[in-house]
Amino acid sequence: MRGGLDVITPRRPECSVPFVEVSITELDLACLPETGAVFDQLLALHPEQIVIDLADCRHIDAAAIGLLLDVHRRMIRAGGVLSVRNPNPRIIRILQTARLDHILPVRTDASPAPAVPTAPPTVVAAGAGTASAGDAPLPDAVPRATAYGRATVTVRT
């Protein structure tokens, strides 16, 4: 107790998934509600690290940049890290123009890979095993990869 006030340090919620990889093929205003719902469900798992693979993504817009900043802010508050991997040269220029490359780690295949567990990812075909945006994952549920619209979510534990 200090000066009559208790100093409480926030504790990081128990991590139920250490690493989540999200492979996105389109990241724009049209798919933002679906993609945002995916990130909401992933953040409920309290991952230590989320990597967004943009290797197959051809375009992002201002709304997508806003979503990335929101997810980054929420990850930082939870003690986690959000990074972007393999954006094409056009997307790199967009990230640089928005100065997002100063906020988020941006990696390419030439960059050292983040330390992650080596368990192979499981991918569920589009339409199979999908959950509605309102479904909250159960704390004891085993996470899995699912295709949501144009984003493929791969969870590695």
TrEMBL record:
CDD domains: STAS_anti-anti-sigma_factors (cd07043)
Alphabetical list of SUPFAM superfamilies matching this protein: SpoIIaa-like (SSF52091)
Domain STAS: 50-126
Pfam families in the record: STAS_2
Domain of life: Bacteria
Signal peptide: none
InterPro entries assigned: MlaB-like_STAS, STAS_dom, STAS_dom_sf
Gene3D superfamilies per the UniProt record, alphabetical: STAS domain
Name listed for the protein in its UniProt record: Anti-anti-sigma factor
Originating organism: Micromonospora phaseoli
